[in-house]
Design a protein that fits this description.
Elements: E1 6-12, H1 19-33, E2 37-43, H2 50-60, E3 65-70, H3 76-86, E4 91-94, H4 106-114, E5 119-124, H5 131-147, E6 160-163, H6 164-172, H7 180-187, E7 191-196, H8 210-224, H9 227-255, H10 266-272, H11 275-305, E8 312-316
Parallel strand pairs: 1-2, 1-4, 2-3, 5-7
Antiparallel strand pairs: 3-8, 4-6, 5-6
The chain binds uridine-5'-diphosphate (UDP) and magnesium ion (MG).
Length: 326
């Protein structure tokens, strides 16, 4: 089997409503590129008919279609890792299965790679998602920009292209909780970005309710930055220093109490001093810090157990010898 020039890796979770349209648009687009390609679908434990639809598609295009079937739902990023482990192309493109990333844009990514870039990130200029998703994404992009060394405009865009070297490095990283665009970026030597179109989800619904989105962003921040932990200890030091200063002032005040005959400034201080509020503030910060440490410790725990990150029920390899039905 000659190695494909292009692999397209697509995670699939409950996408029965989108898959027929995806097949209808993706394959002709790839055929038109005139490169040897393969498509690797990773079914992430879908509970609908997605797996059956993928099998049907493989019957139709056995020469270019590989399917990895997970036993259960391990998440979008693990599904991509599984795709990376099995794809063989010289270049690898990731995209979503719901057609929010138009397959027609793949050519743009490849054109950027032709110019010598080993990592091409898509940027959704006109993002078609709800206002709160757009707002949350912006906030998270800004936070990640400040807390990590990773420079990208649109971290949530999964329409991206990677060189073989980067894909191998990602596949070798034995990370339990990860965020592929960021991890891949750490291995890139010449990254770039291109604007890509974005479409509304026309069928099915988002697999990311708010809480799952928060979990994912914790993966991103804890996976690539120790700054939250460090900030927390800095805050602790600041509080201790302030407490110490207060103590010195209070003692000094008591020492000189007898000599005091100026204006009554204790009452003024009392206006700002509310022990309950301050205590609640500190307790809040402590709980937050504790939780933050928990986020890291939890991930360390998962990592040291070195359980398999996912289990695969079956891999249906593409069969280059078979002629497609069409
Ligand atoms: N996905 C997945 N496993 C999950 C959640 C999502 O494989 O646990 C896939 C999903 O099928 C889609 C892509 O990841 O191909 C992005 O998911 P979705 O479109 O629901 O996310 P959104 O566009 O709302 O961010
Ligand atoms: Mg989507």
């Amino acid at each position: 089997m000659p190695t494909p020039q292009l692999s397209v890796v697509i995670p699939v979770f409950n996408e029965e409503a989108s898959l027929p349209d995806l097949f209808a648009r993706l394959y002709p687009t790839l055929d038109a590129l005139g490169v040897r390609y393969e498509v690797v679908f990773v079914n992430d434990g879908s509970r609908d008919r997605s797996a059956a639809l993928l099998r049907e598609q493989r019957q139709r295009r056995p020469d270019t279609t590989t399917i990895v079937l997970f036993n259960a739902n391990y998440g979008q990023h693990q599904a991509i890792v599984a795709g990376f482990e099995r794809c063989t192309g010289e270049r690898v493109v990731t995209m979503d299965a719901d057609l929010q990333n138009p397959p027609e844009e793949i050519a743009k990514l490849l054109a950027a790679m032709d110019k010598g870039h080993d990592y091409v990130g898509g940027v959704r200029r006109n993002r078609e998602d709800s206002w709160w998703r757009r707002w949350a994404s912006k906030a998270m992009n800004r936070l990640r920009e400040r807390l990590t060394q990773i420079r990208m405009t649109d971290q949530g865009c999964m329409l991206r292209a990677y060189s073989r070297e980067i894909v191998d490095a990602v596949a070798e990283s034995r990370e339990v909780s990860t965020f592929i665009p960021a991890l891949a970026y750490t291995f890139a030597s010449n990254p770039t970005e291109v604007d890509v179109a974005h479409a509304e989800r026309i069928a099915g619904r988002s697999n990311y309710p708010l809480y799952k989105l928060i979990r994912l962003n914790f993966d991103l921040i804890t996976g690539f930055s120790l700054v939250p932990l460090q900030q927390f200890s800095r805050f602790g030091m600041l509080v201790s220093a302030l407490a110490l200063a207060t103590y010195v002032v209070v003692i000094a005040y008591r020492l000189f109490l007898f000599d005091w005959h100026g204006a009554n400034w204790q009452e003024a201080t009392a206006v700002f001093w509310d022990r309950d509020i301050l205590a609640f503030f500190l307790i809040g910060m402590m709980l937050f810090g504790l939780g933050l440490i928990g986020e890291y410790v939890g991930r360390i725990y998962q990592q040291v157990r070195t359980r398999p990150r996912y289990t695969i029920r079956a891999v249906l390899e593409r069969d280059a010898g078979k002629v497609p039905e069409r």
